[in-house]
Automatic annotation (TrEMBL):
Residues 181-250 form a coiled coil. Keywords: Coiled coil. The keyword Coiled coil applies. The lineage of its organism: Bacteria, Pseudomonadati, Planctomycetota, Planctomycetia, Pirellulales. This is VWFA domain-containing protein. It comes from Stieleria magnilauensis.
C-alpha cells in the first residue's frame, strides 16, 4: 500500500495572547471618544478607564479566537429561549392569575367611604388607586392595609403574566403556575438583554458591555473564565493604547489629555474636514511648502538686478547659453541667459476668534461645535501656517482671552435670571463688585470686539480679521466703568457694539460673522449681523452648527490664497 505524503498538520488556530491584537490591525482610536467626552462636559475627570473602554470601538476581528466566540454564546442563549417557548403554554396561567386577583379582591372588607374608589380600582385594574387607598387605610385600622397589599400583588402578577403572553409566543403544552410563569418571564427578559449586549459587542468588540454576572447564569464556568480573560486583554489593550496616544492617568485612575493627544485629535479633525470638501470645488492639495517665505511658481522671467539667484531656473538657463554659444567650449553664462522663477510670498494673517459662550449656546449643543472648530483652526495654523497670529476670546457677559489648552474646558454660562424683561447695570470700578456677583449668561459683543482689536492692532501685518461666532444680537455692553445687561436686546447695546465695529474698520480689521442657529433667533439677528459685517467689509456665514468647523477653516484657507494671489 502506497503511503500518502502530507496531510493535516494542525486544524486548530488561536491567537497568542502575548501578541494581541494582531500586528496588521490599526490601533483603536481612543483620542476621539476622549475629546468628545471633554467637549461635551468641559472636563475630563468623569471619564474613567472603564468608561473609556466602553466608548472605544474595536475591530471585531481582533477578538476572534480569544475565548468563546460571540456567535457561540448567542446560539446558546437562543437555543435556551427556543426550548422554553416550545415547552410551555400561557393561556392557562393567565386564567389562574385572573382568578387569583379577583379572589383576593373579594376577600377585602372595605369601608363605605372607600368603597367607590375600591370598586374603580378593581374594575379598571389601576395600581395607583390601590396605592391611594392603602395610605388612607391607616385611619381605619384592622387588616385593611395588609389585604390591600395582597390585592395589589395579585394585580401586579396578572399584569406581568399578560405582558409575558403578549411579548412571547409559547407553542408548548405544559402549563405553568403563576410563580413559575413569573420566573420564566424574568429568565426570558435576561436572555433578551444578553442577546442585545452580545449583538452590540459583536459590532464594536466592546466586551465591557456584557453583563458577566447575568451571563454566568447560562454559560459554562470554563466559557466564563475565557470570556473574562478576553475582557481583561481588551482592557489592557485600551490602557496601553491610551498611554501611547497621549492619554495619561493620574493617581486617581482618571485620564488627562496631553499635548500629544491634542495633536492627534486636531490632525484627525483636519483630515475629516478637508476630506468632506469636493476636490473639484476645493482644489486643495498637500504640498511641501511650509511656513513663510517665497513660493516658487512655474512661470519664469529674465534675470533682473536684485533678483535672488536661489530662484534660478537652471535647466532653462543652460539651454539659453547653449542656444547662444553653440558648440563652443567652455560654456559661459551671461546675464541675459539667466532665467528666474517667479515667486510670491506667504504673508502673515492675524486672527482673533470670538467664541460665544453665553447661556443660549447650550441649545442643541452649539458650544461643542464652537470648541471643535477652535481646536481644528489652531491645528491648521500650527501645521501649515506657523507664522500666523491667532488668539481665542471667550465671550459672555464679559470677554476673556483663552489659551488653546483652555478651550476644551469652556462651557456655556448657566442662566441665572429668567425674567422676561431685564434692565441691570454694574459699576465695574467698585472694588466691592466681583465678577461672581454678576449674571454671566449675557452676550457682550462690544467688549469682545474691543479686546480683539487691542490684540490685533499691533500685529505687523495688514491682513487682520476677527471671526465672530454667535447666535444673535448682543445683550450686554460697557460704557466707561459701567456694564449694562439689557434683555430683550436694546438699541443702546447695538449702538455701542456698532461703534466698536467702526473702530475695528478704522484699524483695517475685517469682521467675519458665523451665525449659528438658536431657538430665539429672528430676522433682526440676521439684519444686525449683516450691518456689522458690511461696516468692516466682512461677510456673514449661515451654518447649521455641525458644519461650523468646515466653514471657518475653509474660509481661512481661501483668504490666504486670495492674499497670496
Amino acid at each position: 500500500m502506497n503511503k500518502r505524503l502530507g496531510g493535516i498538520i494542525h486544524a486548530y488556530q488561536k491567537y497568542d495572547p502575548a501578541s494581541f491584537p494582531p500586528p496588521s490591525e490599526p490601533p483603536p482610536d481612543l483620542v476621539t471618544p476622549a475629546f468628545e467626552q471633554a467637549l461635551m462636559y468641559g472636563e475630563f475627570r468623569e471619564l474613567s478607564e472603564e468608561e473609556l473602554a466602553r466608548a472605544v470601538r474595536l475591530d471585531p476581528s481582533q477578538i476572534q479566537g480569544l475565548g468563546p466566540s460571540i456567535d457561540f454564546l448567542k446560539a446558546m442563549l437562543e437555543e435556551r429561549k427556543r426550548k422554553i417557548l416550545e415547552t410551555y403554554e400561557a393561556r392557562s396561567v393567565q386564567k389562574k392569575a385572573r382568578k387569583a386577583f379577583h379572589s383576593a379582591a373579594k376577600d377585602v372588607r372595605i369601608p363605605k367611604k372607600l368603597a367607590e374608589t375600591y370598586r374603580q380600582a378593581i374594575n379598571r385594574e389601576q395600581p395607583y388607586l390601590l396605592e391611594s387607598l392603602w395610605y388612607r387605610a391607616e385611619d381605619h385600622g384592622g387588616s385593611l392595609s395588609t389585604d390591600l397589599l395582597k390585592v395589589a400583588a395579585r394585580m401586579g402578577d396578572k399584569h406581568n403574566i399578560e405582558e409575558l403572553a403578549s411579548k412571547y409566543e409559547f407553542t408548548g403544552n405544559e402549563s405553568m403556575s403563576v410563580p413559575k410563569a413569573l420566573e420564566i418571564k424574568e429568565e426570558l427578559e435576561k436572555i433578551d438583554e444578553l442577546l442585545k449586549q452580545l449583538e452590540e459587542a459583536a459590532k464594536s468588540a466592546q466586551i465591557g458591555l456584557i453583563d458577566m454576572d447575568m451571563l454566568s447564569e447560562f454559560a459554562q464556568p470554563g466559557d466564563m473564565e475565557q470570556l473574562e480573560e478576553m475582557r481583561r486583554q481588551v482592557e489592557n489593550l485600551i490602557r496601553e493604547e491610551a498611554e501611547r496616544q497621549g492619554l495619561q492617568r493620574d493617581s486617581a485612575g482618571q485620564f488627562r489629555l496631553t499635548p500629544h493627544a491634542y495633536k492627534i485629535f486636531q490632525g484627525r479633525l483636519l483630515e475629516r474636514i478637508f476630506s468632506e470638501l469636493a476636490p473639484s470645488r476645493s482644489g486643495r492639495h498637500h504640498g511641501n511648502v511650509i511656513g513663510e517665505g517665497a513660493v516658487e511658481l512655474q512661470q519664469t522671467k529674465p534675470y533682473e538686478f536684485g533678483d535672488s539667484v536661489a530662484n534660478m531656473d537652471i535647466p532653462q538657463t543652460v539651454i539659453n547659453a547653449l542656444l547662444r554659444q553653440g558648440d563652443e567650449r567652455p560654456l559661459r553664462l551671461r546675464g541675459d541667459d539667466i532665467e528666474i522663477h517667479k515667486t510670491r510670498n506667504h504673508p502673515k494673517c492675524a486672527t482673533c476668534v470670538i467664541m460665544d459662550m453665553s447661556g443660549s449656546m447650550r441649545y442643541d449643543g452649539q458650544y461643542m461645535n464652537v470648541k471643535r472648530m477652535a481646536l481644528a483652526l489652531q491645528g491648521l495654523i500650527q501645521s501649515e501656517y506657523p507664522g500666523d497670529f491667532l488668539r481665542f476670546i471667550e465671550m459672555y457677559t464679559f470677554a476673556k482671552l483663552r489659551a488653546p489648552g483652555e478651550i476644551i474646558n469652556l462651557m456655556p454660562k448657566p442662566v441665572t435670571i429668567h425674567d422676561p424683561w431685564v434692565r441691570l447695570k454694574a459699576d465695574l470700578s467698585d472694588q466691592n463688585v466681583s465678577e461672581a456677583q454678576i449674571h454671566p449668561h449675557f452676550t457682550n459683543i462690544q467688549r469682545s470686539l474691543q479686546l480683539a482689536r487691542q490684540n490685533l492692532v499691533n500685529c505687523d501685518t495688514p491682513n487682520r480679521q476677527i471671526v465672530l461666532i454667535t447666535d444673535g444680537l448682543p445683550t450686554a455692553h460697557c460704557e466707561d466703568e459701567w456694564l449694562y445687561m439689557l434683555y430683550p436686546p436694546d438699541p443702546r447695546t447695538e449702538q455701542a457694539t456698532m461703534r466698536e465695529a467702526a473702530l475695528c474698520a478704522k484699524e483695517g480689521i475685517t469682521i467675519n460673522i458665523f451665525l449659528v442657529p438658536s431657538w430665539s433667533q429672528s430676522e433682526e439677528d440676521i439684519r444686525f449681523a449683516n450691518r456689522m459685517a458690511q461696516s468692516t467689509s466682512g461677510r456673514v456665514f449661515f451654518t447649521s452648527g455641525n458644519n461650523l468647523d468646515r466653514f471657518v477653516l475653509w474660509d481661512y484657507v481661501q483668504n490666504k490664497r486670495e492674499i497670496i494671489a
